[in-house]
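input
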Amino acid sequence: MACLEYINYQPWRDVAVGKSIIWEPDAIAPGVRGLPQVFWKSGEGWAEANHWALEKVINQGVHLDTAKALLKHLHAYACFLEENELDWRHFPTRLADRAVVRFRGHLVREIERDSLKSSTARSRINAVVQFYRHAAAHDFVTSTTPMWRERTVVVRYYDTVGFQRSLLRLTTDLAIPNRAIPGVRLEDGLLPITDSHMTELLEFTAGKETAELHLMLTTGFFTGARLGSITTLRIENLEHALPDPLMKGFYLLRVGPGTNVATKFNVEGNLLVPKALLEELKRYAYSTERLKREARATAAHRTLLFLTSRGKGYSVNSVGRLMTGLRRKAVRSNLRFMQHFKFHQTRATYGTWLMKLVLGVTTASAAVEFVKNAMLHKHEATTFKYVKFLEDTKGKQEAARAFHEAFTGLKRRDWDDVHA
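output
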């Protein structure tokens, strides 16, 4: 099947030497580290798609992460084309025979089988349409028949003053409706797992998985940190963590700008880390196994807390591959709840339990402010989802006793200072 690779792109330029033309690296033009590229199973690159990725990053100023997301969707399309032996440039007169139409039908069936979220399918078909527009603009594809049918829709909204405005948007007949899932959903549409499932999972990873993956999951469950923050933690961040002046047994670990720890929207704040977890992370940081990995690392990666066996930092994609293996092993060991488990559910679990505990000892407004700061939410609306979720699931399973014990310091906090 087709594969998605990340290359270090170095631009070249032609130089006239006498009557000959030679090529040499362009010292002025910017390069791109980690540029996404799609390759067919034959090993040949999908030149048109790869040109689109380069154009997005170099000429359109699109963030590299956005280009990676778009090429990830296009990689799925490439796999579909190869599996069904279809040519992406062929647009027969019969609508149902077109590759892009058949791909849309494939995505709809994936949604119906509950193996793909409608939001993901919508993003995937939108990426494919964007690519075809790029290909048509650069004459990479020509068709005597329309690639799809387009229509304009009117989107009405109210501006900040209260006046109604209208926007005209162009859409295609390939669009997939993003139908909302019934019930209250948390960040990224994920749900928390129960206390018993969390305990089972961590017991399983402690004995069956690498120390790195086990500690990443533990950090997610007990701090609510995103995967991007966990994979960029450095030893100096652990060493600089300070005791929380208002809660005994907790430390404040600074993340965001100036700390080298990545956060969503570049938000600055503190992770609330239980003392036991911080000590465990420090023990791992100076363990023999990690020091061996550090010896293989470059200067840029050497102080990262979590290193691969080759001494490199973990990426979101590499952890995703580890999670795929974990799900398979866990399901074979009768942990059925792991079949669709996502790493980000550690954050949903932490946020739900933290909100429940805080609501038990203070007012709703103070609880929202505290959880918002603890989870580094940019907007209170995101935090309120946890309140709504708890209201809608009232009477369900209680939070884990161990988690209650871990957060007993909440009862001793000075709630007159909710911004601390």
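quick obs: The radius of gyration is 25 Å.
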